[in-house]
Hints:
By secondary structure, the chain is mainly alpha-helical. It has two domains: 1-58, no CATH class; 60-132, AhpD-like (Up-down Bundle). The chain is 69% helix and 0% strand. The radius of gyration is 18 Å and the shape is elongated. It starts with 7 loop residues before the first helix and ends in a 15-residue tail after the last helix.
Amino acid sequence: MKAANKSEQQRYDAGMKVRRRVLGEAWVKKATDASTNFTQEWQAQITRSVWCDVWTRPGIDPRTRSFMTLALMISLGQWDEFNLHVEAAFNNGLTQDDIKEAILHAAAYCGVPAGNHAFKEASATLEKIGRAPKKLVSPKAKK
């Protein structure tokens, strides 16, 4: 059944399933628990429109959607969303090297400052989630 043929509740339920799979139960619980009478409709809207109507479309697999989302967040300078999707990328099959490639590719089009900041943000997020990049062993200085 296409999204256009689903009820709002069916779209919400389908979107919530994808949202939980991609972002993780803890993040979704935090977001939904923080809903207020002011933000509740917004949370429902993004669940239906983004997580159901877009993320469940058959034309692009979740792994590719993760790559695209990382690059888009870099291009927009949306660092909170970028970091959220760095964490989520692993749920969609991306590796640390894939995240690096997404940043390198985006930086070629968005500029060096965006790339520098993306590496800084991603490194901090990877460390926070226990996937810190390995430090390089520097050669000893010659005397």
